Structure prediction request, 408 residues.
Amino acid sequence: MSFSEYPSKLLENAVNEFASLPGIGRKTAFRLVMNLLKRDSEEVKRFGESIIRLHREIHYCKLCHNISDSEICSICSDEKRDRSLVCVVENIQDVMAIENTRQYRGVYHVLGGVISPVDGIGPGDLKIDTLEEKVKNGGIGEIILALSTTMEGDTTNFYLFRRLNKHNVFLSTLARGVAIGDELEYTDEITLGRAINNRNPYHQ
Amino acid sequence: MSFSEYPSKLLENAVNEFASLPGIGRKTAFRLVMNLLKRDSEEVKRFGESIIRLHREIHYCKLCHNISDSEICSICSDEKRDRSLVCVVENIQDVMAIENTRQYRGVYHVLGGVISPVDGIGPGDLKIDTLEEKVKNGGIGEIILALSTTMEGDTTNFYLFRRLNKHNVFLSTLARGVAIGDELEYTDEITLGRAINNRNPYHQ
Prediction:
């Protein structure tokens, strides 16, 4: 069933806006709007304003480019964090994923993407200059390149390696291998091959 | 991956609002909010305002209770529509579905739900009084009961039949039978049984 005609222009506008979101089709958008219509006026106002406020009031941390409610994000302003250790990630989702592990006590640097000629994203579109600046200013002992293991991620890793390696900083990447809980039978050949080559001493 | 901590309260608020929508989990909500964050300020403002405006400015048609931009909806105010023929439906989605067939030239009456004791919805919660009023006022020749073939729909059909049958109006329901394109093998017994009992003369 397609909705070729809406009984209201206001309804159609709202459905169009929701349908512009990724993964939301017109039918789902309509269902979401109908749900909002049934709610209290106050609740709907709060919904709409949460989006507008987010966009108007959000900050990007001056140091790491992570999303923040203030000029310096909560991670960069945390005294207990090791500022000599910088983890370079693609986006803020990756920051949140690493933070959720509760294993990392350094700080981050959010590139805002990866080099992808197909999408027209070159090194100039990413926060690489500010990263190099940080390294030049000193005080950084190690940089962890924590980008995706995609072609674009690897390209960006390589580019960053070339640009940062000339400065006095230790560069590392995340360990690659078989994911915990994965069966070898269903692990792809490249991952399994690398896991064999980069095997670790056994410890209990 | 669960997001136990958000780097920004504003972000968290927006994610919470989206996650309150039916069928939208926290991960999807986050993805949608990140998509909005990447957009122009103007675009995001338009998105938020489309929701607020919808709720504030929408009307429900005084005659049929359909959603509308004005006091009388575009269907009820259409001179070409047959006002002596009223199709009773559960909600505005059903109006749109029937409108999309382009087969119907009468008007509608939107009940706003069906009788469902489990959900605490009784006849008093639906727009049944205004329907009876319309019938009493005269000028209506036929009422089509076009409710779902669920238990609640059938209950409501029966209740409406009892209430409206005493007035001078012809009551009908939608034809039930095997859906076009369906294979008999996979049609449920009740539908198939009714389709046999209510068989029509063959015409080419």
